[in-house]
Design brief:
Blueprint: E1 3-7, E2 11-16, H1 17-25, H2 33-43, E3 49-53, H3 60-69, E4 74-77, E5 83-85, E6 90-95, E7 123-129, E8 135-143
Parallel strand pairs: 1-3
Antiparallel strand pairs: 1-2, 2-4, 4-5, 6-7, 7-8
Helix pairs in contact: 1-3
Length: 144
């Protein structure tokens, strides 16, 4: 089976090429079409494995998040050295939450009361950790 491997520095994520292709070109695809074209060219090689990394292919991280959320693929944690199915990974909100529509109100910071008033910039995203609690992948998915 052809495999797409995504290295984050903290983990090695493995997905079937067919699963990645279906996610990229599926009817629900919300990815940037130029980046989809580039990724499809990379993964449609004659090789059994396509290796991508966060340093060279940061955008694939968003695809990886969606695949993990769907329970697709496996992850090898570089810290504990164990292999986990995507469905076993734990999802956490980063910054102000997973979406600008679900802002984490517990987070401190924001507007100054005295002096120059600033428009507060906020960001959020999600991360996945292995069952032992080691961070495997984290992506900022929105910013205001």
């Amino acid at each position: 089976m052809k495999t797409v491997i995504f290295q984050t520095g903290k983990a090695v994520l493995k997905f079937g090429q067919r699963d990645v292709t279906e996610r990229l070109i599926g009817s629900e695809s919300e990815y940037d079409s130029d980046r989809v074209t580039q990724l499809l060219e990379l993964i449609s090689t004659d090789y059994d494995e396509t290796i991508l990394s966060t340093a060279d292919h940061h955008y694939f991280g968003y695809v990886a998040l969606d695949l993990i959320r769907a329970g697709v693929g496996t992850a090898i944690c570089n810290i504990c050295g164990k292999i986990y199915d995507a469905g076993k990974l734990m999802e956490f909100a980063v910054g102000y939450g997973k979406s600008p529509f679900e802002i984490n109100k517990e987070r401190k910071g924001g507007i100054r009361l005295f002096g120059k008033r600033k428009n507060p910039s906020r960001f959020g995203g999600k991360e996945y950790k292995c069952p032992a609690g080691h961070k495997l992948i984290m992506m900022e998915t929105w910013r205001t």
